[in-house]
Design brief:
Layout: E1 18-27, E2 34-42, E3 47-55, E4 61-69, E5 77-78, E6 81-87, E7 91-103, E8 120-132, E9 137-139, H1 147-155, E10 159-173, E11 176-192, E12 200-209, E13 212-221, E14 224-233, E15 236-250, E16 253-263, E17 268-283, E18 286-297, E19 302-311
Antiparallel strand pairs: 1-2, 1-11, 2-3, 3-4, 4-7, 5-6, 6-7, 7-8, 8-10, 9-10, 10-11, 12-13, 12-19, 13-14, 14-15, 15-16, 16-17, 17-18, 18-19
Length: about 325
């Protein structure tokens, strides 16, 4: 069970790769601006990293990267990027005052690899407030779990939860200001985080409205697959019992997908995803591709969210 204390730093584990992270994403339907940001603190390795990636209208992107030496989990601020806790499990503020790299095509970001085109430096000022639309869904790691879930937790995260959010605020890039009034998702994770252990994972955030949202993910290990997910509907959060996924690739990037998910009450959700710009990232030998995706449910509901594909194979 997720409790208010889980919105605060957790006792540090002894694992070298132990980390605590906060993550937020958003999309503004009026301008088309979208983005995601993560702060990861790895005290046993003595480091803290912060990133903000923005998908620009027209297909461009901006990347902000910040890093500090740090041996304790403290306030979620690294350099010019801050994830500010306001109200436990209800409200947070993301602020940024930093320089970023702007590129004409999202795929040119290629953090960790070799950018295919030179970018330009741009000032980034952001102030976004995230307000939860739903209670947190996830696990604190304090209760018993299946052998498959325990194995996943030992490599990916012992505790993890998600919440669909309403997002309001502004983002200013150089002289261009974007007002933001849209939807998004926030995620908090803690425990060992070794990106290289799973073969891969697929993670999807689909905020259709303040009253209806879906999140599903699968983590792939040799010989097994661990799935989890939820749907927020009718004022309730309902667990997904499983889902199937079919993906069409163009080269290394995912371009379209279909998901068929079933919740604990037997309701089936058939979803088609059209993947737009993809930002490719690299963490050591691990490749992560973040796709801004238009999801359409078979009943007509539509959402813009993130389809994240991680691969170690």
């Amino acid at each position: 069970m997720i409790e208010p204390r889980d919105d605060h730093p957790h006792p540090r584990g002894a694992e070298p790769a132990w980390s605590e992270s906060t993550y937020f994403n958003f999309h503004d339907p009026s301008s088309g601006l979208a983005g995601f940001t993560r702060i990861g603190q790895r005290p046993n390795e003595g480091s803290a990293d912060a990133t903000l990636f923005l998908f620009l209208p027209g297909g461009g992107a901006v990347a902000v990267l910040e890093r500090e030496a740090r041996k304790e989990v403290s306030l979620a601020a690294v350099g010019g990027l801050m994830h500010e806790h306001r109200v436990d499990l209800e409200r947070w503020r993301v602020r940024c005052g930093a320089k970023g790299l702007g590129v004409a095509h999202a795929a040119d970001v290629d953090i960790g690899g070799q950018p295919s085109r030179a970018g330009s430096v741009v000032s980034v000022d952001a102030d976004l407030e995230f307000t939860a639309c739903m209670p947190p869904f996830g696990t604190s790691g304090r209760s018993r779990r299946s052998a498959e879930a325990a194995a996943s937790a030992a490599a990916v995260a012992a505790g993890h939860f998600e919440q669909a959010c309403r997002v309001r605020g502004s983002v200013t890039l150089g002289d261009t200001r974007f007002d933001v009034d849209g939807l998004g998702l926030r995620d908090r994770s803690w425990g060992p985080r070794d990106w290289s252990v799973p073969w891969g994972w697929r993670w999807f955030s689909m905020p259709f409205s303040t009253d209806f949202a879906i999140g599903v993910h699968t983590v792939l290990f040799p010989g097994r697959e661990v799935q989890a997910g939820w749907v927020w509907r009718d004022g309730r959060t309902i667990k997904m019992t499983g889902f199937t996924l079919d993906t069409t690739f163009e080269g290394k990037h995912h371009r379209s997908l279909t998901i068929e998910a079933t919740d604990a009450e037997g309701r089936v959700y058939k979803i088609a995803g059209d993947v737009g710009p993809v930002i490719p990232l690299q963490i050591g030998s691990t490749r992560v591709r973040e796709g801004l995706t238009r999801f359409k449910l078979d009943d007509g509901h539509e959402a813009t969210g993130i389809a994240e594909y991680l691969d170690n194979t």
